[in-house]
Input
Amino acid sequence: MTIHQIRIYEIFEHNKQFFHDRFRDHAARIMKRHGFDLVGMWEAQTPERTEFVYLLRWPNIAAKETAWSAFMNDGEWAEIKRATSAAHGRLVGAIEDRDLSPTEYSPVLA
Output
């Protein structure tokens, strides 16, 4: 069954453009190389923080876990994170992650 995954990152106003540049120019490209299906990306504002929210689609949990493992162990991604953090400081605060399974009455059926 197809699942979706929602990721919510706390980002910081003083350096959020560097976060967006890194995600757009590097993370999304490397994620696709490892089989990520990026459905959409949004920015949200709450009274407490600015958030970057993105939605992923997976054929199953095993595919998600395999892709995430490959991405997190990708040498190019590790170097990009190191370099951008050194240049611009911490780009991400708290991270929330949820797997979403459609209800039987959802218009987004597997």
